[in-house]
Amino acid sequence: MVFSLRSADRERDIRDRISFMKFFGYPEKLPDRNTIWYFRERLSKTGKDRIVFNEVRDQIVAKRIRIKKGTMQDASFIEDDEGEYGKYRGDDANIRRSRDGASATKNNEKHFGYKAHTLVNEIKIIKKLSVITANVHDSQIDLSLPGIICYRDKGYFGSECRGIDGTMDRSVRGHSLPLKSIRRNIRISRIRSMVEHPYAFFKRMCRFGHVMVTTVQRVRLKTYFTAMCYNLIRAIFQDRIA
After folding, report:
1. For position 211, what pLDDT does the model report?
2. Rounded distance, CA 199 to CA 202, Å?
3. Whole-Å CA distances, 50 to 12, 114, 221, 229, 240
4. pTM of the model
């Protein structure tokens, strides 16, 4: 199964599924793709996408799903269309050219677009997220919660952590890591491997590794709704094993 957040796909789903039509008050007029698009624009411009995400998350927590101590933070690139020779930026950008997207290089690979940061708890529920341009370094984003340990990879080394710092150690020039730090990194790596689970869902189930919208606001909106879908499915799974 593949989930999509495109307005055209959502319009097709509304007219194809009885449950969707019932939700929207069939046989009254059903929303078309333009209505869905403008609704999304209002959500992103007013910041209510974050409110909706938080409400869904809080309802999940209230339904017998206990949040354990300990969180994990990580980031993943969301690729966008760079445009011909990278010239199309700002207000003159075409519809399929990114206005806000930026370039970044990681492990000798070039990326263009945005980056999603997520804070995940021990049962793989997304607690918080942030969407930024790809050129902002990971160390600039701190999603940790005060009083709760936050496991992070070496990209966050040396950066602020509001919670209890569980960031992996990184060697500095001319100084190799001591054995104690190497063992610590191995322990943290085993714990924080669960943080990759949401990104696998984003990119494999939702095909969310590449977007065609032009601003960071719109990418953020899509990310919040994708995260809500992930959290709801994860909650169903947790309910089954409870």
Report:
1. 85
2. 5
3. 26, 18, 8, 14, 28
4. 0.77
